[in-house]
Design a protein that fits this description.
Layout: E1 3-8, E2 16-25, E3 30-36, E4 42-47, E5 55-58, E6 62-68, H1 84-91, H2 95-103, E7 115-121, E8 125-129, E9 135-138, E10 141-145, H3 155-170, H4 174-185, E11 215-225, E12 230-239, E13 243-253
Antiparallel strand pairs: 1-2, 1-10, 2-11, 3-4, 4-5, 5-6, 6-7, 7-8, 8-9, 11-12, 12-13
Length: 264
């Protein structure tokens, strides 16, 4: 039950901020965030099962993030194509994916399992979903995504947006802001008071940080881009039951132009 929060132009010193959790089966192999060997350098983790990614930032300011989703239209089960390819191909400037986002074909594409997708750059984001045919643009403000259709403010995204906004509003120091965001991302308290209905996965829908044995939060990521276009990408890796295994950061200097911001 992944979670992504993005703030555009909401902080005086950091106009682009991301706080995200990746929830996945611990047995599924993956690699932590690293710089990919691509023509335009990309910082992202990699799913070794299918080769895709769930979140990434490139040196030209491109950004993409993905959550699984389901609705009456589409199942969240694995589809014919890997959802992680959407993030990878967007950041690699794949013409097919760029075109499908621009012309609206992607939210009609049922070859993927259900997804919510953010694509764009540090100044503008497009949100699309094939679970509800939803489209949205963000140039200023906060957007949160989880595993529900993006136009519905269910408890996890509603609570997450409120907490995320509060941390950004109350912290101007970089270290305090980053610390506050990671504290938020590792909160395993239920976001509402609804009792479980007997579904073993019900509690995962109600927490930002999932402490599971077989499935749970495997990585928390905070991205902060300052007004000088210097990006700090910090990731914490977790083992079963929420035990932190490591933490590491990558610095990235972004070099962007007006043409770079016309990606789709």
């Amino acid at each position: 039950m992944c979670f992504v929060a993005v703030a555009l132009n909401c902080h005086p010193d950091f106009p682009f901020i991301v706080a995200a959790n990746r929830d996945e089966y611990f047995a599924r192999p993956s690699v932590e965030i690293h710089t990919w060997d691509t023509p335009v350098p990309i910082v992202a983790g990699k799913d070794l099962s299918a080769g895709g990614a769930w979140l990434g930032l490139s040196t030209d300011g491109s950004f993409a993030a993905l959550t699984n989703c389901r609705s009456e239209l589409v199942s969240s089960s694995r589809g014919e194509r890997s959802r992680g390819d959407l993030v990878r191909k967007f950041l690699e400037k794949d013409p097919e994916i760029l075109g499908a986002i621009k012309n609206g074909d992607l939210q009609q594409d049922l070859r993927y399992g259900g997804f919510n997708l953010m694509t764009g750059n540090i100044k503008r984001l497009d949100i699309v979903s094939n679970t509800s045919r939803h489209t949205e643009k963000l140039v200023k403000g906060i957007k949160t995504l989880s595993n529900h259709v993006p136009e519905t403010a269910w408890p996890k995204t509603r609570f997450g947006k409120r907490k995320f906004q509060g941390i950004i509003d109350s912290n101007t120091n970089q270290n305090e802001l980053q610390s506050g965001l990671f504290c938020f991302l590792t909160d395993s308290n239920p976001v509402d008071r609804v009792e479980t209905l007997g579904d073993p996965s019900d509690h995962l829908k109600r927490v930002i940080f999932a402490r599971g044995e077989q499935y749970g939060t495997r990585a928390s990521t905070v991205i902060m881009v300052d007004t000088n276009l210097e990006a700090t990408i910090t990731e914490k890796i977790f083992e079963p039951l929420g035990i932190q295994a490591k933490s590491h950061s990558i610095k990235l200097s972004l070099s962007v132009s007006s043409q770079d911001f016309d990606l789709t």
